[in-house]
Specification:
This protein is an alpha+beta fold and about 200 residues long. About 40% of the residues lie in helices and about 20% in strands. It contains 7 helices and 6 strands. Helix 4 crosses helix 5 and helix 5 packs antiparallel against helix 6. The longest helix has 17 residues.
Amino acid sequence: MVLWRNNEEDWTIRRKFWLPSLSCTKMVARSSSETTRRVSLTKILAMELSPDWVVGFVDGEGCFHVSINKQPEMKIRYQVLAEFVVVQHQRDAQILQALKRFFKGGVVRVNHGDRLCFRVRKLETLAQVCLFFQRHPLKTKKQVDFVKFRKVIDVMSSGEHLTIDGLRKVIGLAKSMNLVGETRFEEVLADLGEG
């Protein structure tokens, strides 16, 4: 959202931007020398998100994902990648930045096209995300995937995922979360000698 003052001295004074439990007004600085001044909403608006709002938003827009990638340099030849992701249109970048501040970590990057994503992959930050959702449970079926995701994070935190048995445990949990990648998990198990 951009507000400006043009040469004809007609002002766009303000525009309300509403989110649950959030109302902000944005105004343009008055300067006689400016012809057009654009003010970015993300610079003016410092969103403070409530835990209840985050739970509701993640219930609708978030994803807990676990994948297994071939990594020949690793002892067990596979790497576990766990991530928490929220994708939004670029016009809602301020929401993703607010989530980044809320969880004190993660990155906001281009996902593809006009979509951005807030992504957390760092194990310590994922542990904090899990702690938050343990204290503030999700309300939809996404809670079931979260419980499995939290178990994967526990396995990773202990370092157990770096063993064949730990990898099998992660695959068992991930298979029931990410049904799209089920074939891939079966291929990994076959490569480990369980196919």
